[in-house]
Design brief:
Strand content of chain C: 25-35%
Distance between the termini of chain B: 31 Å
CATH topology of the largest domain in chain B: FAD/NAD(P)-binding domain
CATH superfamily of the largest domain in chain B: FAD/NAD(P)-binding domain
CATH class of the largest domain in chain C: Alpha Beta
Oligomer: heterotrimer
Number of domains of chain B: 3
Bound molecules: flavin-adenine dinucleotide, iron/sulfur cluster
Largest sheet of chain C: 5 strands, parallel
Number of helices of chain C: 18
Number of strands of chain C: 36
Largest sheet of chain B: 7 strands, mixed
Structural class of chain C: alpha/beta
CATH architecture of the largest domain in chain C: 3-Layer(bba) Sandwich
Strand order of the largest sheet of chain C: 8-7-6-18-31
Radius of gyration of chain C: 32 Å
CATH superfamily of the largest domain in chain C: FAD/NAD(P)-binding domain
Number of strands of chain B: 22
Distance between the termini of chain C: 43 Å
Shape of chain B: globular
Chains: A alpha/beta (about 150), B alpha/beta (about 425), C alpha/beta (about 675)
Chain lengths: ~150, ~425, ~675
């Protein structure tokens, strides 16, 4: 998929744990598997360090989708599995409050050798964003009462 | 050159020697690393990408070279040749010759001005003769040390380099210097050579232009290579059909190389995959008797190559001749069909085997095995001990192996040598 | 003072001074630059604030490349370094060393992976890949601006190591480590040392007696003053980290006092399958697996002992297992837990259904029980024809072979089975010259030194070779009653141009591959990773081939993958060298990525303490300040894992993980989200 420089692409932020998703992304690279380039992976130690406000702030700055790729129960950190799930739930609550489609934030367990699951997650998010569009349009729209 | 006193002397700065030196030095031992070429790196630094991970080879090698050069416990001695060895009560005493570089290593900054100025062009052995270099040059772009060396045999003594060198490093008056190294233990890491390209006359190696050796293919495929792409040495044409002849120098009693060289199946598959990447339209055929992809992750590698469309054909190649357009024609007995066919290719790579680098074993009087590699009397007990106490061996000096295995044996030799050093130094301290 | 020195001095004290960033985009010898236009990346970054220099190089990790960075630090006063190159797992450490050499704090450098996560995955989209590189590098730059100098956490390291597994690899590792003056505890699950090697009779390529070799090792280990051997023991709890692992080892009771042991062994009547002979025979539940085993005292098979008293000298002795718990602290752990032979599925090549089908390890035990010079009888019949089938449980193909319980097939080659089965074929030929031998193989992989000779000998010794294809496995069936032979092997032989051949046989031997020992519990406790093949996974096969991602844990022998004895020994010694280098100094350094409290912001709410799940990592403490009592959170760095659970919950943003701060992430997100004018500019 060649990107047309003129057509702006949605931006996908991937927060990937060093022990899990980041290593999985490296394995995907070693396998030379292709995926769209509008994906920005930042290494993290463990997702629990982020408060829900962090994600909302990122959406407000123009990040259109966020995937947290964590190590799940295989994590070196005791808090990771449950803590991240709790964090994502409270983030969803905050996103709803701000009128942000909660599908823009996804949680996926990715391990060091998860090439296929990594690609699946990325492609799903890309497809989703093609459907729901840029976050700034959503933020500009009035918040519906039901949200 | 000053005389040196070290705990361990490692002979050979290929990947095995470098890793052994690092593993010993990390344990706090003083190590001298002796390399006869002007740079360390061995064969590995000339490779393109390396199986099974397809990592870029320089990305793995150059940092190790750099780590060796910067390690506080390693004395790096390049362009040095061991002349003789004597056993002393406390270890070994070596007479070593520092060959003249005709460049002052302390002054040279590696700026390469001399190289650009030098009028003499020679085929570069680093590029298997494919590329060219000058009579004075930094051996290759990632060489360690980054110091020029002058090939006096081919120098026309025009003096241009001397004039252009701002550091005043070029010195035509340099001479070989002999110095002494005392070491408690020796680690031999003198590596391998390819079996000769022309060993099997029927295959036309050396006489047919488009029958090449695999290290040449590595240089074609290397991003740092002379052309940056694959082409035929004969006419520069981009090949569209390439054949690999497996066991071309190995498993053949008539050649005196009875053993399997262990890496040729894997490097052929690797090269085939890299060629498919570079030349997607090329047909690649590998003629083999057994595919030996036995290492960790290697079988998967083989399966990936099959999935990519590399053709594996079980067959014995009887002979290779050339047609009128210098295309190699391979005559092969297809053992699964019981037919003999002839097929024309653009390029043939002979998957040559490994023989030991000669030299070190003689000076050290080390007994050899029937395969001419340094003998290991008790492989299932002490896998890197030679027949001479205090002398250890690692990497391809102890038999064909790949990089992963070379690195493992390097770690292993570091353990064996350090145990020996501690034991021996304790004894001599009491004596 | 010359400018050069001034700049260098400035670089040496980077607090509060002007931020001067050097940005380096590596071509990676073409790996990156074939897709990402590195020069454009450098140009775009060069226009961003605080960037003093933006360069590219064919390979910054080379000595010459590193020298460029060092020179910039020293001559241009660069005090933050951003490098875009391969994955940080490969060379982050390399460049930390580089900047350190140039006099810069190693944590003032940030590594951006633009190879595995950019050029290698976007070959089809150079434009997109280049833009991505610019953004990722801009994010790296944003982070680098906020980096502060840090010191590693220095901890005393226990000069002791734990070796788990007492096979040939574990024994070799224990000895090599002990030779370096480091204490070793060797924990072996079974009551006896030696592992699988003890079950072999003659080993390739030297035809040596394996138990003799093993005993030479065991004797040295047992006699070594710094080695403690615990048999019948397993690790049951782990905490801590490199340098200071705290372990609990639970050891079964030997169950027999020295004086009574022999009498109990003689008197014991209860029997159980003898796993030393792979269940082919039965032995007593008080047993010695073989004469000369170590320890020589018999052991009780607690799994099978039914608790009934054993009569000795008129007394009824009831054996009791009172497991003993040992607590240990060690600096490093060696995993040498070895392999299990692949256990064929019920019915796979007739295994478990046709009595004439056995595995190669079983055949080796069968042969051990046939006295030299006597014929080979199996199942009451003299054995005349034997077929050995290669690659059973190895080199399996997805879609062709039945997956195992975890849904996977063993797609790897087990590396020793070819040579082992040819070696055994030669043994059969030597002892029973009349037997017809058939080897059914795909490829003969006699790769090692002295292995090809075994293949050549087998060919001259009239072993018949039949070559099958992976997709078309041979079949084994019971012969119809009244047939000359009890079993039939059918194979499509590619050596005879695809002819279907039927071989009547008396014995079918499955050359089974290797599977890792079942060590799920250990893997969970140690938090180490396994590869797709389920064997323990090294960090990198070339850069760090015997180390695991968890620092302080190394690998020895077949726990990592199939190996023969020589290879297991080498790997074990290599692992020992790593342990010696790690613990030799008696201290280790840990990265400073731990939580840090900003005292000016913390008001002691304690949310952090509640969120933290690591024992002893954070606590509230009361301080006296200007006559007031203040409560603040205090971190114990050695116990903090840096997960940041405290960061997310702090209402004051008073706590952060060093080098991974929330502010840095916000800055990175802003950089990713921002339109990049300089880049757009460069496009014009
Ligand atoms: C075509 C080809 C492709 C390959 N591809 C791969 C691959 O993709 N992956 C992989 O894992 N392996 C590969 N290999 C194998 C790999 O090259 C070797 O395993 C590895 O290079 C061996 O390293 P070494 O240190 O033992 O020997 P060498 O690299 O030969 O190093 C020996 C060093 O010792 C020096 N020396 C020799 N004698 C003396 C002396 N008397 N005094 C001083 N110095 C001396 C030499 O100059 C040399 O620098 C390949 C091999 C070939 C031929
Ligand atoms: C049929 C066959 C024939 C072979 N023939 C040869 C030959 O001729 N020559 C040759 O070189 N190689 C041969 N091999 C290979 C050889 O057996 C292995 O290389 C060698 O035994 C590996 O040793 P190891 O120490 O890695 O593992 P193992 O021998 O498996 O030892 C591992 C040890 O760890 C223990 N353990 C496991 N889990 C735990 C735990 N959780 N806690 C504590 N302890 C634990 C086990 O009880 C065992 O004692 C053969 C292999 C097979 C299958
Ligand atoms: S590795 Fe392959 S090509 Fe090389 S000698 Fe062995 S079988 Fe032949
Ligand atoms: S060593 Fe031989 S028998 Fe074993 S899996 Fe590999 S090819 Fe098959």
């Amino acid at each position: 998929m060649a990107s047309n420089p003129k057509a702006k692409q949605p931006k996908i932020l991937i927060l990937a744990t060093l022990a899990g998703g980041y290593a999985g992304a490296d394995s995907t690279g070693q396998a030379h598997a292709d995926y769209p380039a509008n994906t920005y992976i930042l290494p993290i130690m463990c997702p629990v360090m982020f408060p829900p406000e962090f994600f909302v702030r990122a959406f407000e700055r123009g990040i259109d989708g966020i995937i947290i790729m964590y190590s799940g129960t295989d994590s070196p950190y005791k808090v990771e599995a449950d803590g991240t799930a709790a964090l994502v739930n409270s983030s969803y609550a905050l996103m709803k409050e701000r009128g942000i489609d909660i599908r823009r934030l996804r949680l996926a367990a990715i391990c060091t050798v998860c090439v296929k699951p990594f690609l699946k997650e990325v492609n799903q998010m890309v497809e989703l964003l093609q459907g729901i569009g840029f976050v700034k349009d959503e933020l500009a729209a009035p918040v519906t009462a039901s949200a | 050159m000053e005389n040196l006193h070290v705990d361990a002397l490692v002979l050979g700065g290929g990947i095995a020697g470098m890793q052994a030196a690092l593993d010993l030095a990390d344990q706090g031992f003083q190590v001298a690393l002796l390399e006869r070429e002007p740079s360390i790196g061995g064969k590995m630094i000339t490779l393109s990408k390396v199986f099974p991970t397809l990592d870029c080879c320089s990305c793995i090698t150059t940092p190790k070279m750099s780590a060796v050069a910067h390690h506080p416990n390693i004395h790096l001695l390049t362009y040095c040749e061991m002349q003789s060895v004597a056993e002393t009560g406390s270890g070994f005493r070596l007479a070593v010759v520092q060959k003249p570089r005709y460049v002052d290593v302390n002054k040279c900054t590696g700026c390469r001005k001399c190289e650009y100025e030098c009028p003499v062009t020679l085929p570069s052995p680093f590029d298997r003769g494919l590329g060219a270099y000058r009579a004075i040059r930094v051996p290759f772009s990632t060489a360690v040390p980054q110091t020029a060396v002058l090939d006096i045999e081919n120098c026309i003594l025009c003096g241009k380099c001397e004039k252009v060198c701002a550091a005043g490093a070029v010195d035509f008056t340099q001479r070989a210097e002999t110095f002494e190294i005392q070491a408690t233990t020796l680690v031999v890491a003198s590596g391998f050579e390819l079996t000769p390209l022309n060993a099997k006359k029927e295959y036309g190696g050396e006489t047919l232009q488009n029958v090449i050796d695999p290290l040449m293919m590595e240089r074609f495929l290397a991003p740092t290579g002379p052309y940056g792409r694959v082409l035929r040495p004969g006419d520069g044409k981009e090949p569209t059909s390439i054949a690999y002849v497996q066991c071309a120098g190995s498993r053949d009693q008539t050649l005196g190389v009875e053993y399997c060289s262990r890496v040729c199946c894997m490097y052929a598959i690797k090269q085939a995959m890299l060629i498919s990447g570079a030349l997607p339209m090329a047909d690649i055929t590998i003629y083999y008797m057994d595919i030996r992809t036995f290492g960790k992750g290697y079988e998967q590698f083989y399966q990936n190559a099959q999935a990519m469309g590399v053709e594996f054909v079980r067959g014995k190649v009887a002979a290779i001749r050339e047609d009128d357009e210098q295309n190699p024609v391979v005559k092969v007995e297809l053992t699964e069909e019981g037919r003999i066919i002839e097929r024309t290719f653009d390029l043939v790579v002979l998957s040559l085997g490994m023989v030991p680098t000669a030299g070190a074993d003689g000076i050290l009087s080390l007994p050899l095995g029937e395969d001419k590699f340094i003998a290991i009397p008790a492989p299932n007990a002490n896998p890197c001990e030679t027949a001479r106490p205090g002398i250890f061996v690692t990497g391809t000096a102890m038999g064909p192996m790949d990089i992963v295995d070379s690195i493992i044996t390097a770690g292993s030799v570091a353990s064996a040598a350090s145990a020996y050093i501690r034991e021996h130094q304790k004894e001599t301290a009491y004596a | 003072m010359p400018d050069k020195q001034k700049a260098a001095r400035k670089a040496a004290s980077p607090d509060k001074e002007e931020v001067r960033v050097g940005v380096y985009t590596c071509h990676c010898g073409g790996n990156i630059s074939h897709v990402v236009q590195c020069e454009r990346v450098a140009k775009a970054l060069g226009k961003m604030p605080d960037v003093v220099v933006a360069r590219t190089d064919p390979s910054f990790c080379s000595d010459a490349g590193q020298a460029i960075i060092e020179q910039d630090i020293q001559e241009l006063g660069i005090n933050r370094v951003v490098i875009g190159a391969c994955a940080p797992s490969l060379h982050e450490q390399t460049f930390r060393n580089t900047v350190t050499r140039a006099g810069l704090n190693p944590y003032l450098y940030h590594h951006v992976g633009i190879r595995e996560q950019d050029s290698w995955v976007h070959d089809g989209d150079p434009e997109g890949a280049t833009e991505k590189a610019v953004r990722l590098m801009a994010a790296g730059l944003a982070k680098a601006r906020l980096l502060t100098p840090l010191e590693p956490i220095r901890l005393g390291a226990e000069k002791g190591a734990l070796v788990i597994g007492g096979g040939v690899a574990g024994l070799r590792a224990a000895l090599d480590i002990a030779h370096q003056g480091i204490r070793v505890t060797l924990v072996e699950k079974s009551p006896f040392l030696g592992g699988r090697m003890a079950q072999l009779e003659s080993i390739f390529p030297t035809d040596e007696e394996p138990r003799q070799l093993l005993h030479a090792l065991i004797e040295q280990a047992a006699a070594h003053p710094s080695i403690t051997i615990l048999t019948g023991a397993e690790v049951t709890a782990v905490s801590g980290y490199v340098g200071n692992f705290n372990l609990q080892v639970t050891q079964h009771e030997r169950g027999l006092s020295e004086e009574l042991a022999e009498a109990l062994l003689a008197a014991c009547e209860q029997e159980a399958p003898d796993n030393f002979n792979y269940g082919l025979t039965r032995r007593k539940v008080v047993y010695r697996p073989y004469p000369g085993c170590y320890p020589s005292t018999p052991a009780v098979d607690w799994e099978h002992y039914d608790g009934r008293p054993i009569q000795v000298d008129g007394k009824a002795v009831v054996l009791k297992d009172k497991p003993q718990v040992h607590a240990l602290t060690v600096g490093a752990i060696v995993l040498a837990t070895g392999f299990n032979p692949y256990e064929p599925r019920q019915g796979e090549y007739g295994y478990g259904e046709i009595t004439e089908v056995v595995t190669l390890p079983q055949l080796i035990r069968i042969l051990a029980q046939v006295p030299q010079g006597e014929p080979l009888i199996w199942n009451g019949h003299p054995v005349r024809d034997v077929a050995l089938i290669h690659c059973v449980g190895s080199r399996e193909i997805e879609g062709v072979h039945t997956p195992q319980d975890d849904g996977q097939v063993n797609n790897y080659c087990s590396r020793v089975c070819c040579t082992a089965s040819l070696h055994t074929a030669l043994e059969l030929r030597r002892r029973f010259p009349e037997i017809n031998l058939y080897e059914l193989y795909q490829d003969i992989r006699t790769y090692g030194r002295g292995h090809e000779e075994i293949y050549n000998q087998a060919q001259s010794a009239m072993v018949h070779f039949l070559r099958y294809r992976g997709e078309k496995q041979p079949e084994v069936a019971a012969a119809p009653p009244g047939d000359t032979h009890p079993a039939l092997v059918r194979v499509v032989d590619t050596l005879t141009y695809g002819e279907e051949i039927e071989v009547p046989v008396d014995l079918v031997v499955l050359a089974v591959g290797m599977m890792p020992s079942p060590i799920d519990a250990l893997v969970d406790m140690l938090k180490v990773s396994r590869g797709n093949d389920r064997f323990l996974l090294e960090v990198h096969p070339k850069l760090r081939p015997v180390e695991m991602a968890v620092r302080g844990i190394v690998l020895a022998g077949t726990a990592q993958g199939p190996m023969n004895i020589q290879e297991s020994l080498s790997a074990a010694s290599a692992a020992a060298a790593k342990v010696a280098a790690l613990l030799g100094q008696g201290r280790v350094e840990l990265p400073p990525f731990v939580a840090r409290v900003d005292e000016s912001k913390c008001d002691g709410t304690g949310a952090c303490v509640e969120a933290c799940q690591e024992e002893g990592a954070i606590a509230l403490q009361t301080f006296q300040e200007n006559g007031h009592e203040v409560r603040r959170a205090v971190v114990t760095p050695a116990n903090c894992t840096g997960c940041g659970a405290c960061v997310g919950v702090c209402p004051k943003r008073a706590i952060d993980v060093q080098a991974w701060t929330l502010a840095q992430y916000e800055a990175m997100v802003d950089a990713l989200a921002m339109d990049i004018p300089a880049f757009a500019e460069a496009e014009k």
